[in-house]
Write a structure and sequence with these properties.
Chain lengths: 423, 319
């Protein structure tokens, strides 16, 4: 039983000071509970929310276990308040059949931290040519499909994937990047790529593919999710698609809300990410989109990499930012502090919103739902220190930033899996 | 009064030369003035001076180069340094050893100055953050080629006296040119007006935010400029098909004898070399009376001596 917290459950329109009772791993009651039962957690002055959900993480297993494992990634996730995560299939080898999906699930269960879901690849080897076994993967519990890291380049292949997916009611997610525009780019194409002498990725690369995909969705009516959108033009396309009531959703990362291309000026590879960091104007438009309700989910795109890889030339270093463990504080900084969202608005995009995108029965404190709860101290200020990360990687450009909003406890299926006092 | 004069005394304090973008006009001028002092050494019968005696300079070249590498080697030896040649083709990843590992190995051998050429923009910066030795950029990707920029302004300054108010055209593949970028920074900082000339497909992203003018027509600007720098078409860097054919490119952007007839009588014709004769420039122009191409090579030596001398001096001050 969690008592006296400010319970925020956007899915049920709840935002009030009360108690939450969890019995046998399920939510039994939300309200004033007179008689305390079992373990009592005092949440006075804290926020009590449905367990947070991140539908875009890279846990690198199988294949790159020195960067991250499902165990280390899951430990990081619960410490950040996430009770469910969705792994991307761009592992080595990629997740492209039911055995691969089951492997991820088994590792997740064995770790006993957060619920670990996975998406499967759309195409074999993520090569964009032949469809992967979506049916078998769906049966094994994959929550969607994506070739993340690559966009599906060939429009006919993408159309085939969307058509085929109509059998399973799973979402097709896309890393929107047209390689004929993006080429060998390593950062946003613009003034900074010009003076730094680095090949650029034009915003068009993202927008052209998103535009194309929306035309394909019109033909197929299959659920489509635009991953980590980063440009003002992409927002415009999403707005139009939603206006036409197409089944299109989208997500935004903290780095595309906090960092601009200018951060690449010193060739610090911790700012090398795909899609690349854009401009202040893009950030403004993305925030506007969030305020307007056009964005369905906030995701980290947690992409851990080894120090030795990130020590390479900017041109050669891998793309990615590891930000899972400081996500909440970053969202508070970029969305709550400037007044883009209030707490219920933020929690919605970290619970109900993402759960709906992937179609899982989570992200709410409704009666009988799984007892996944996150307790947040909204006023706790702290300094981000990468050396304290449970993640195996340190490629986090926010090291040393001071943020507000800290996870106190993470409860998964009624079990306390993280407590700030455990440190 | 005395104290004031001391304040004004310029002190060079950079132990790395990474880019011209970060230098002030005063710093650039200081290098050029220092270079002037070194020119005399090349006229002696014994072409050596002692300032780098006992120092080790490594030429760390990850890209093909003949003149820049030889020029640095010669500059270092004229200053009495020991020179190691380290030539490695391909990127660090392909080779299996990272750039930083290579550099740390060299450092363990006691290298004082690393002259680096690399295909990745920012590689010299990465190096300078990670090792104690001085780092001199000899060309990084299509970011900068600072000593080329310096020798270009040195050449112009020696002939024209000053760059102030001069109109300078840089013609060709601007988007992939480190020379164009270094020239732009040096020339504009010294007061010249620079115009980039080339097809729109060879202009970099947001070129309008750079301190230059842009023209797509060599014919429009040929009469107006005091200096014209013809870039080499770098076939190895061109991606895709930015212009339909070499013939069409030459038609619009080649410096021909015909076009030269409309140029100012005292125009200087420059080229960073090596020239594709008949492509960006006709042979008669390259070898003609306005050409200062060989002057550039000669001045390159003095400028590189000045740079090696100054970074070494700054490192000594720092210690």
């Amino acid at each position: 039983m969690i008592k006296n917290g400010r319970v925020i459950d956007p899915a049920n329109g709840v935002d009030k000071k009360c108690d939450v009772l969890i019995v046998d791993g399920k939510v039994a009651e939300v309200g004033k509970i007179k008689k305390p039962v079992g373990t009592v957690i005092d949440a006075t002055g804290k926020l009590v929310t449905p367990g947070l959900i991140d539908i875009h993480v890279h846990f690198r297993e199988p294949g790159d276990e020195e960067e991250e494992t499902i165990a280390s990634g899951s430990a990081a996730a619960v410490a950040a308040g996430f009770t469910s995560v969705v792994c991307m299939p761009n592992t080595n080898p990629p997740i492209e059949n039911e055995t691969d999906v089951e492997y991820i699930h088994r590792k997740g269960r064995q770790t006993r931290k957060t619920h670990v879901y996975t998406m499967g690849a759309i195409t074999k080897g993520r090569e964009g040519v032949e469809l992967a076994e979506m049916g078998f993967m769906a049966e094994a519990g994959a929550v969607g499909f994506t070739d993340d890291g690559n966009g599906v380049q060939n429009p006919a292949v993408m159309l085939r994937a969307l058509k085929y997916a109509a059998m399973f009611d799973k979402v097709i997610a896309q890393h929107c990047q047209d390689n004929s525009f993006a080429g060998s780019g390593v950062m946003n194409a613009g003034y900074y790529s010009t003076i730094l002498g680095l090949p650029g990725m034009d915003a068009l690369a993202e927008e052209a593919m998103l535009w194309r995909d929306i035309q394909l969705v019109k033909k197929t009516s299959v659920r489509y999710h635009a991953q980590h959108i980063s440009t003002a033009g992409a927002v415009e396309l999403i707005r139009a698609a939603k206006k036409s009531s197409l089944p299109v959703t989208c997500e935004v990362t903290p780095h595309h809300l906090l960092l601009t291309e200018e951060y690449c000026a010193e060739y610090d590879t911790n700012y090398k990410v795909s899609p690349p960091l854009r401009t202040a104007k893009d950030i403004e438009v993305l925030k506007g989109a969030i305020k307007e309700g056009l964005v369905d989910a906030l995701v980290t795109d947690h992409a851990p990499h080894l120090q030795s890889e990130k020590e390479l030339e900017f041109l050669a270093a891998p793309f990615g930012i590891a930000s899972l463990e400081c996500a909440l504080g970053l969202y508070v900084k970029t969305l709550i502090e400037p007044g883009v969202l209030d707490w219920p608005g933020l929690i919605r995009l970290m619970t109900e919103g993402p759960a709906k995108v992937i179609g899982i029965d989570k992200g709410t404190l409704g009666k009988g739902k799984q007892g996944d709860v996150t307790i947040i101290d909204p006023d706790a200020k702290y300094k981000i220190d990468v050396n304290k990360f449970r993640s195996k990687s340190r490629n986090c450009p926010y090291n040393g930033w001071t943020v507000t909003g800290k996870v106190e406890k993470t409860i998964v299926g009624g079990e306390i899996r993280f407590s700030v006092n455990d440190l | 009064m005395k104290e004031k004069r001391q304040d004004k005394q310029f002190v060079w304090n950079r132990k790395h030369l990474l880019s011209l973008r970060e230098l002030s006009a005063e710093e650039i001028t200081y290098i050029l003035d220092t270079a002037k002092g070194f020119e005399e050494i090349s006229t002696r019968s014994v072409k050596k001076a002692p300032p780098l005696r006992g120092k080790v300079v490594v030429n760390l070249f990850f890209e093909d180069s003949t003149r820049t590498r030889n020029s640095f080697t010669l500059a270092a030896s004229r200053l009495s340094a020991d020179v190691i040649e380290f030539t490695e083709k391909g990127s660090s990843v392909a080779k299996g050893e990272t750039l930083l590992d290579t550099a740390r190995n060299l450092e363990a051998m006691g290298v004082d100055i690393v002259v680096i050429r690399h295909s990745a923009g920012g590689a010299p910066k990465l190096l300078s953050r990670s090792i104690k030795a001085c780092v001199v950029n000899a060309g990084d990707g299509f970011c900068e080629h600072p000593t080329q920029g310096l020798l270009d302004v040195h050449t112009i300054r020696k002939i024209k006296g000053s760059l102030k108010g001069l109109k300078i055209a840089i013609v060709g593949d601007i988007s992939h040119s480190r020379v164009a970028r270094s020239d732009m920074w040096a020339m504009t900082k010294l007061g010249a007006e620079v115009v980039f000339v080339g097809p729109p497909t060879l202009m970099p992203s947001q070129v309008g935010r750079l301190p230059v003018k842009v023209s797509y027509s060599l014919d429009d600007i040929i009469e107006k400029v005091d200096v014209i720098n013809m870039l080499r078409i770098q076939f190895e860097r061109l991606g895709g098909n930015p212009f339909p054919s070499v013939r069409e490119y030459s038609h619009y952007f080649g410096l021909t004898v015909e076009r030269m007839k409309r140029a100012k009588p005292d125009i200087l014709v420059m080229h960073p070399g090596p020239i594709n004769r008949g492509l960006e420039m006709e042979s008669e122009v390259a070898d003609g009376e306005h050409s200062v191409i060989l002057e550039q090579v000669k001045n390159g030596l003095a400028v590189r001596m000045a740079v090696l001398f100054l970074v070494n001096q700054a490192a000594a001050l720092g210690d």
